[in-house]
Design goal:
76% of the residues lie in helices and 3% in strands. It is built from 16 helices and five strands. The strands form two sheets. The chain has a three-stranded mixed sheet.
């Protein structure tokens, strides 16, 4: 039987009847959920700016404004979505799973129509209108409506701390596999070399790739829906009133959440800016676009190599302790890349791989931080607010994504990058190298400092909160 509780933890009859025990099927299903997410998210994070600047001919400054402006919309849509999933009455298939069923196709369609190659021939104002509408449709509405329920679902698939940690690991593996597919295939598909040896993009390939990725994302979402089961239900008590303002005030006092929000901003700025700038780095600095496929394999190899051992690492050292160490290593190695000013691609790849081992360690456990924070919130306030907590964190990640895109766009303009030029000057190429290495290095060190000194949920505190919640529920 699944476990059903109200917002204060009172045990109630499971609305879904008999549910099979938590196991490997749930982990695989949850992995496919992020696989589906990242067919649109990683593709957009890595290549949407390239499409906007090199295919549609928009300036980096305009693209940066779009990404930042969209986050103002997200401030409302993310929190609203979190409130909806927290307060809606569970359906027969749960509180969170139905959203995966409802939104799988809309997300795929919204993602696909962002990459219509023939828009390049439209007049400027029409291009700009198209970009604003399609980007907001995907990012602020469709993706929000599936990602927040999906992320919140981890806390109801298993009530066990170890089970949730394993789901976090499998989610990160799913993201890494999606990153591997996108990182290896996309550069081979969308880039070609012209007669002068310059790396150019093939506009039609963007649209075809987006269609294929959209179809695969629907399949992945379907696997997530059918393989995962919700086992813990938290129903609101009749007459309970808690306004959005009350909810935000409560979350505003959640020190672990605030620390992780700050860390997420730096993390996403570093990782997504690095992914986006790598396109320009290998196009204009190393002048070898095909090498990006190898780099993208190495960027996820560290995560995949660590995945089998992450449970033992967490049990031995704790999530906070292991994550902080990974960020410290990544920051130091990126700064080393900056100071060395490498022109040798293999040497660059070796140091980049070592850095991604550090980031991979953190990414494998970061989603388990959220479940720890949800437990902390319940211990502190007596309220279970899975969707709202995840919505705040999701918004922070989107702000980090926007900062990566916005800063990337602004920086490209500031360093003298010319979108229409087949090749950049040597000075501009050197500045691209600086941005691609120095900014991630500084940001990863900032994440280390935040996790080490501002995030309070170390191994001892997590175990203490889990024991307190278990004791409360046993008493009831």
């Amino acid at each position: 039987m699944g476990i059903s509780m109200d917002d204060k933890g009172d045990v109630k009859k499971d609305v879904s009847g008999t549910v099979r025990p938590f196991g490997f099927r749930d982990k695989i299903g949850y992995m496919f959920g992020d696989f589906g997410n990242d067919f649109s998210f990683i593709f957009a994070s890595s290549y949407l700016m390239v499409f906007y600047t090199k295919v549609l001919g928009l300036s980096g400054y305009v693209v940066g404004l779009l990404f930042l402006g969209a986050r103002i919309v997200d401030a409302f849509t993310d929190v609203t979505m979190g409130r909806i999933v927290d307060h809606m009455k569970p359906a027969k298939d749960g509180r969170f799973r139905p959203w995966i069923r409802w939104m799988a196709v809309p997300v795929a369609v919204a993602s696909t129509i962002m990459y219509l190659y023939f828009v390049k021939d439209w007049v400027y104002w029409a291009k700009l209108t198209y970009v604003i509408i399609t980007y907001l449709l995907w990012s602020s509405f469709c993706y929000t409506a599936i990602n927040i329920p999906y992320g919140s679902m981890v806390s109801v698939i298993s009530p066990d701390v170890e089970g949730r940690a394993s789901l976090s690991t499998f989610r990160s593996v799913g993201a890494s596999l999606a990153g591997l597919v996108i990182g290896v295939l996309v550069p081979l598909i969308i880039y070609e070399t012209d007669m002068e040896g310059n790396q150019i993009v093939k506009p039609v390939s963007f649209t075809v790739t987006a269609i294929i990725f959209g179809a695969f994302s629907i399949i992945c979402y379907g696997l997530c829906y059918f393989l995962c089961r919700e086992r813990v239900f938290f129903d609101k008590k009749e007459g309970q009133k808690d306004s959005v303002w009350d909810m935000l005030k409560g979350l505003g006092k959640n020190r672990p959440l605030l620390a992780l929000v700050c860390a997420a901003l730096m993390l996403l700025l570093a990782s997504l800016l690095g992914q986006a700038m790598n396109n320009y780095l290998f196009l204009d600095y190393f002048k070898n676009a095909k090498a990006m496929s190898v780099v993208n394999v190495l960027s996820v190899a560290g995560t995949l190599l660590l995945a089998p051992f992450i449970s033992k690492i967490v049990m031995r050292f704790g999530k906070k302790e292991a994550g902080a160490l990974g960020m410290l290593a990544a920051g130091v190695l990126y700064l080393l890349l900056f100071f060395l000013r490498l022109t040798n691609i293999p040497v660059f790849m070796v140091l980049l791989f070592l850095a991604t081992v550090g980031t991979g360690l953190f990414n494998l456990i970061i989603w388990a931080f959220i479940t720890d924070i949800i437990d902390y919130q319940e211990v502190a306030t007596g309220k279970r607010e899975d969707g709202s907590v995840y919505a705040v964190y999701s918004f922070a990640r989107k702000v980090g994504q926007a900062l990566a895109g916005g800063v990337g766009g602004f920086v490209l303009t500031a360093i003298g990058y010319v979108s229409e030029a087949p090749a950049q000057t040597e000075a501009v190429a050197g500045r691209i190298y600086t941005v691609a290495t120095l900014v991630p290095g500084l940001c990863y060190l900032a994440v280390f400092l935040i996790i080490q000194f501002a995030y309070p949920l170390n191994k001892k505190e997590v175990e203490k909160n889990a024991a307190a919640l278990q004791m409360q529920r046993e008493k009831r």
